Amino acid sequence: MKTSIITNPTHIIKTAGKLLMSVLLISGTLGAKAQLNPFQAMYFQNPYQYNPAMAGMEQALRLNIGYRQQWSNFPGTPKTALFTADMQPARNVGIGLNVNDDQEGLIRQTRVMGSYAYHLPLNSENEKLSFGVSLGVNDAHIDYNKVSGDLTDQQIAQYNQLKAYVDGDFGMAYTNDKLTVSGALPNLKSVFFKASDQRFDADRLLFITAVSYKIDMKTADNSLTLEPLVAYRKVKGYKDIGDLGFNFTMNNYGIFLQGIYHTSQSMGLGVGLDQKSYLLNFSYNLETGVLSNYTRGAFEFGLKLRLFGNK
After folding, report:
1. I need a labelling partner for 24 at 20 to 30 A (CA). Which of 142, 178, 228, 263 fits?
2. Pfam families under this entry (predicted)?
């Protein structure tokens, strides 16, 4: 008598294995794709997040908190928490602290960086050429509490045996009242010491540059400002990414609207309120390519405080 496919144990095991592998592959792809779309606030509200040269651009102490999470039905949804603090303790000098906690599936990566920047004045008071460096620690591990399976797996043990390592960033920027030209080399250890790069970091940022220009709209009191932006990112293990966006501000009310399109086939829409002493922003990033069938995008929330300063 011929055995039914439905009741054949071997066939069931093979089918279940293929299904599980498909889920893992899709989840991994979603996780990597999520990290290719960074915090939207870094383009306009918090450029220090990616460029140490932007630390201490104001005399006020600036505190930024951000949270980003992907909306997906898969377990291990990528999420990232961010904290930055920067200020200008002396004329032309900036210092900062940049903390990033990234959770993706079983892996949790924490990066803590201290920054120093020097702002060289040029022809006018608000025209500067800035240089910045960051130095800190990068650590990643697998959370045993989230492992469903054999906790004695050698792959898990080998990954967690990798030590936290010293890392650094370098950045430059030109700024005036209207124009910002910024470029940074993050993750310097990965750039210059490739042999020591053993972690799963196929989506690590290697280079980023961005240019934006503020345009005052022709109104009676110049209360409307449009800031277009073009950016380029080089990412390890992925094709180069271009970003094209804008930030539209109603200055009298402190309300801003923004949008960014990424050539990695996604786009972000955001809205926020800037009241000088504090800033709130919310954005939603949605996939426009094939992965739109598997994820409902990602949301981002941010809070910025300006303390001990009047700028």
Report:
1. 263
2. PorP_SprF
User: Rounded to whole angstroms, how far apart are CA atoms 290 and 297?
Assistant: 12
118 burial level (CB within 10 Å; 0-12, 13-18, 19+): middle
Give the three-state DSSP class for 267. Answer: strand
Average pLDDT of the chain, as a whole number: 81
Task: Measure the CA–CA gap between 101 and 80, rounded to whole angstroms.
Answer: 6
Mean pLDDT of 23-50: 67
Q: DSSP for 90-126, please give it.
A: ETTEEEEEEEEEEEETTEEEEEEEEEEEEEEE-SSTT
Q: How many residues does the chain have?
A: 311
What tokens does 6 get?
Answer: 């439905």
Residue spans of beta strands (DSSP E) within the chain = 61-72, 79-90, 93-104, 107-121, 128-142, 165-175, 179-185, 205-213, 215-216, 224-235, 241-250, 255-262, 266-274, 278-287, 295-307
pLDDT in the model for residue 1: 43
Beta-ladder partners of 101: 81, 110
- Residue whose C-alpha is closest to residue 187's, from 172, 166, 161: 166
Residue type at 4 in one-letter notation: S
Sequence ranges of the domains in the chain? 34-307
pLDDT tens, 279-304?
999 999 987 755 555 556 889 999 99
Residue with tokens 């180069």: 240
Confidence of residue 34 (pLDDT cuts 50, 70, 90): very low
Angle at Cα 162 formed by Cα 158 and Cα 164, nearest 5°? 160
| Residues contacting residue 246 through CB under 8 Å, at least 6 positions apart | 226, 227, 228, 229, 258, 259, 260
Q: Tell me which residue has tokens 């009298």.
A: 252
Indicate the fold that domain 34-307 takes in CATH: Porin (2.40.160)
pLDDT at 264 over 60: yes
Task: Say what the pTM is.
Answer: 0.80
With a cut of 60, say whether residue 87 has pLDDT above it. yes
